[in-house]
Write a structure and sequence with these properties.
The protein starts with a strand and ends with a helix. The chain is an alpha+beta fold. The strands form two sheets. Strands 7, 8, 9, 10, 11, 12, 13, 14, 15 and 16 form a ten-stranded mixed sheet that branches. It is built from six helices and 16 strands. The chain binds pyridoxal-5'-phosphate (PLP). The site of pyridoxal-5'-phosphate has 13 residues, from helix 5 and strand 14.
Length: 279
């Protein structure tokens, strides 16, 4: 596997990260994941815009975001994935410096690592069993930071319960999943948490809102309460790898799905990808 590390393309096993890297010491860094369909990246610009936002909010001085789409393309070529469904992962940390909570000198170069991996679309069911779990994350969830411990614990709790995803609950309201966005349909209205600092600005959510507009589905950007779940007809998770997936069980209780709006969004999503990527 060929990876990208600090300006060079090299074998993944030749990547050497310092133990003093601030990503390793403090999770002081950010990341992005971009999906490729048949070797073409979907909404790369939106992901790069979000990466810039994450970097700016953490005041990490990395000014080569414009080069990353080229890096992603070359990684597909180097790894023979130019016709494949895959994903591009990139992370940028504040760099290597003696351990101190304070920022290192401004001359410290960020550490950049990127790789691509194939995704087997054929095995994706587009359904998900979920559990509910307390949202113990920090208050800046709009930043796609490497500090994912609450997400890791939630995701493992889901796996331990035989589920696929954990939905975070904060003050009785569903925010999002451990690595996906969340939406529901109640009485024909598409509901999802408003954007802001409480959730990641999900690119799939953005696409889904566009599709609702196209399909004439009314939207209310208002969080869904746990108490309201039994009044919702459809639940779904949204993400770069999950795309639009129907929630088919919550905390072990099966629920019917995918419903009509979820199905329409799934079909609309595939059609939109095909249209944007030119086939
Ligand atoms: C916490 C969280 N929310 C939502 C999402 C979905 O975002 P996107 O649609 O941009 O993949 C992710 C994806 O990684 C995530 O980690």
């Amino acid at each position: 596997v060929i990876a990208y590390f600090n300006g060079r393309f090299l074998g993944e096993s030749d990547v050497r990260v310092s133990p003093w890297d601030r990503g390793f010491q403090f999770a002081d860094g950010v990341y992005e994941v971009v999906r490729a369909y048949r070797g073409r990246f979907f909404r790369m610009n939106s992901h790069m815009r979000r990466l810039r936002h994450s970097l700016d909010e953490l005041r990490i001085g990395y000014d080569d975001v414009e080069a990353l789409p080229g890096v992603a393309e070359r990684l597909l070529r180097e790894n023979g994935l130019t016709e494949a469904d895959g994903k591009f992962y990139v992370q940028v940390t504040r760099g290597v410096a003696p351990r101190s909570h304070r920022f290192p000198p401004a001359t410290t170069s960020p550490t950049v690592f990127a790789s691509v991996a194939p995704i087997s679309s054929a095995t994706e069911s587009h359904t998900a069993k979920v559990i509910l779990t307390e949202d113990t994350r920090w208050a800046r969830r709009d930043i796609k930071s490497l500090m994912l411990l609450p997400n890791v614990l939630a995701s493992q709790a889901a796996a331990d319960a035989g589920a696929d995803e954990a939905l975070f609950v904060r003050q009785g309201m569903i925010t999002e999943g451990s690595h996906t966005g969340f939406a529901a349909v109640r009485d024909g209205v598409f509901r999802t948490h408003p954007s802001g600092s409480e959730v990641l600005p999900s690119i799939t959510r953005e696409v889904t809102l566009e599709l609702c507009e196209e399909l004439g589905v009314p939207v209310r950007e208002e969080a869904v309460a746990v108490e309201e779940l039994s009044d919702c007809q459809e639940l779904m998770i949204l993400g770069t790898t999950a795309e639009v997936s129907a929630v088919v069980a919550i905390d072990g209780r099966p629920i019917a799905g995918p419903g009509p709006i979820t199905s329409a969004l799934q079909a609309g999503f595939s059609a939109l990808v095909a249209r944007e990527l030119g086939w």
